């Protein structure tokens, strides 16, 4: 588990950006980025299916944690991430600790692993994507979140979210 407890902590809260399933939709990524900027967010968790590594340029001002999706090329994204920012961490699955909160992030196409982590009770939050459907539910002591999809084929409205890790407040945003 990587401990990123020192990143972006501000007074009594830490607001982070949550997104998934961008599927090369640059306008929607920019819309989410602009909302994050306006809110003063410094850290983004992306639950995979960015697809094009070139999109990393759009969010290079942020610290980024990205779990690879089934549509991502891990080698291309990792190589680009290394060139774009030293604040980018990209893995198939991420086990994080931010402001004392344990977070597991996976795209969701490895459903058995996702369900195992949710059932473990070891995490305050499990973040995933893949279904293109918004999800916010508590399973035991774990809050399971899918911020929805920014692009691709999907069911429902395109969305992303913010999460205050200290206050445990989730806010969903819709892309117009």
Salient structural properties:
176 residues, alpha/beta, Purple Acid Phosphatase, chain A, domain 2, six-stranded mixed sheet, 12 strands, 32% strand, globular
Strand-helix topology:
Layout: E1 2-3, E2 15-19, H1 26-39, E3 43-46, E4 63-67, H2 74-84, E5 88-91, E6 93-98, E7 101-106, H3 111-120, E8 125-127, E9 135-139, E10 142-146, E11 159-164, E12 169-174
Parallel strand pairs: 1-6, 2-3, 3-4, 4-5, 7-8, 8-10
Antiparallel strand pairs: 2-11, 6-7, 9-10, 11-12
Question: Could you walk me through the main structural features you see in this protein, from its secondary elements to its overall organization?
Answer:
The N and C termini lie far apart (37 Å). Residues 5-12 have low confidence and may be disordered. The chain has one domain: 4-Layer Sandwich (Purple Acid Phosphatase, chain A, domain 2). It has 3 helices and 12 strands, in the order ββαββαβββαβββββ. It has 176 residues and is α/β, with parallel strands linked by helices. The longest helix has 14 residues, at 26-39. It is globular.
